[in-house]
């Protein structure tokens, strides 16, 4: 959390520190009217130790709430990393000063647990905060508050005797915390998706012989015998679907697995790009790029014939010529994107040779899709700059569906999502279509 929050934002850190000191000072002054100076100082320090972490975690994150929390079943790993240990230290003052101020360590530890739970909930549900929620932070923050309360309980044995915070104070705190805790629990039950954390590994698993052969066949089908594959690797997404990848020239080639439908190649540097026979460079504009790409497609992708062709400029990389097939206003799943450099060589390729599927009738029109998308994103009607939506045929849960691919830009932050055009349900954008080029 600490590393993610600071982000080298010195002005914000100064503002957060000033706000924390102000809250602590105001609490001290208010407490001084009801208790002695030493105890009032402890209440001020307790308030400041709560305000500091709360202020730091409110610093703007991604700009939108994802309502997800990463769950790490290996609790001990949260305590062995530097970030977890720093989190522990960050919340210890809350427990320490709370125990010393109230002389109720168990009460302080309980409020600390509620406090850290609320912080993690806010991070994943409040748009202007929008930080990553994970159980490692919840564990280390809570343990930090409890460790501080334990340290406070030990110190109280050596300090002059004093009356603990009255039952009236405890009851009032309970009256506030109980509905907060109930609301937080409800949000977790119905609104937050728990995502199992997978420990990253530095070792990339090698592809099987069948996977490597499939990728080699796809590469040969796209560029003949021009290129040789390096060692192939397999990246599993965790749901039985993954990508076979290998180095090609100074670039790489990828194939979706196990369907083998989507082939992608990036050929770098430019002089290692594929020279299309009969289509010489240089390329000076979209028209020249289209001629090269069409010559390539006639030989290596005849299945794209008849699709609609568009061209758009790639910053510093040439032009991308795209083939898309429409049926009743729906973009079919076939894809062909050919990137042509100024030299006239093909430096990028995305190919997906898929026959047009049978699709259910779309019953959600564009206007209703926008209303559903804005409601799901927590936006006001018409808020942000809308991107033109695209009606796509996509496979979801093993079935072909018709989806609205929606996008809105709020300042620097884009928001994307998928609205099912059949039943109006909302999904995340499938990885394969996140960089899809809309028809123009």
From TrEMBL:
Q: Is 4Fe-4S there in the keyword field?
A: no
Write down the InterPro entries for this protein, in alphabetical order.
Answer: VanZ-like
Looking at the UniProt entry, the stretches that span the membrane are: 12-31, 43-64, 84-101, 106-126, 138-160, 172-191
Pfam families named in the record: VanZ
Q: Which keywords, in A-to-Z order, does the entry hold?
A: Membrane, Transmembrane, Transmembrane helix
VanZ-like domain mapped to chain residues:
85-151
Recorded protein name is: VanZ family protein
Which species is this UniProt entry from?
Answer: Streptomyces thermocarboxydus
């Amino acid at each position: 959390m600490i590393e993610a929050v600071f982000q080298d934002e010195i002005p914000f850190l100064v503002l957060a520190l000033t706000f924390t000191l102000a809250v602590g000072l105001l609490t001290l002054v208010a407490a001084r009217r009801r208790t002695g100076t030493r105890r009032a100082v402890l209440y001020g320090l307790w308030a400041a130790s709560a305000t500091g972490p709360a202020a730091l975690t409110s610093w703007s994150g991604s700009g939108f709430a994802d309502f997800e929390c990463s769950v790490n079943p290996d609790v001990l790993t949260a305590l062995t990393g530097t970030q977890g240990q720093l989190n522990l230290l960050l919340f210890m003052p809350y427990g320490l000063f709370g125990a010393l101020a109230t002389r109720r360590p168990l009460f302080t530890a309980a409020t600390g647990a509620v406090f850290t739970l609320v912080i993690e909930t806010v991070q994943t549900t409040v748009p202007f905060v929008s930080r990553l929620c994970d159980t490692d932070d919840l564990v280390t923050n809570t343990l930090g508050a409890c460790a501080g309360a334990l340290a406070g309980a030990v110190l109280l044995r050596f300090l002059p005797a004093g009356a603990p915070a009255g039952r009236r104070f405890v009851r009032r705190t309970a009256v506030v915390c109980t509905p907060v805790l109930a609301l937080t629990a409800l949000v977790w039950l119905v609104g937050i998706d728990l995502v199992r954390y997978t420990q990253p590994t530095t070792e990339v698993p090698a592809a099987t012989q069948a996977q490597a052969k499939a990728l080699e066949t796809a590469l040969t089908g796209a560029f003949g015998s021009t290129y040789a594959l390096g060692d192939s690797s397999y990246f599993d997404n965790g749901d039985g679907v993954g990508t076979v990848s290998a180095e090609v020239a100074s670039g790489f080639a990828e194939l979706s697995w196990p369907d083998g439908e989507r082939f992608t190649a990036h050929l770098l540097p430019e002089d290692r790009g594929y020279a299309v026979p009969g289509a010489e460079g240089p390329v000076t504009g979209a028209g020249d790029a289209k001629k090269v790409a069409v010559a390539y497609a006639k030989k290596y992708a005849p299945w794209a014939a008849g699709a609609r062709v568009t061209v758009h400029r790639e910053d510093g990389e040439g032009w991308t010529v795209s083939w898309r097939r429409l049926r009743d206003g729906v973009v079919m799943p076939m894809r062909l994107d050919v990137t042509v450099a100024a030299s006239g060589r093909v430096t990028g390729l995305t190919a997906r040779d898929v026959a047009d599927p049978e699709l259910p009738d779309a019953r959600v029109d564009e206007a209703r899709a926008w209303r559903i998308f804005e409601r799901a994103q927590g936006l006001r009607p018409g808020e942000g700059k809308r991107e033109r939506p695209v009606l796509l045929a996509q496979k979801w849960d093993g079935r072909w569906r018709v989806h609205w691919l929606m996008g809105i830009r709020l300042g620097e932050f884009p928001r994307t999502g998928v609205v099912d055009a059949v039943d109006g349900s909302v999904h995340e954008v499938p990885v394969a279509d996140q960089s899809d080029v809309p028809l123009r």
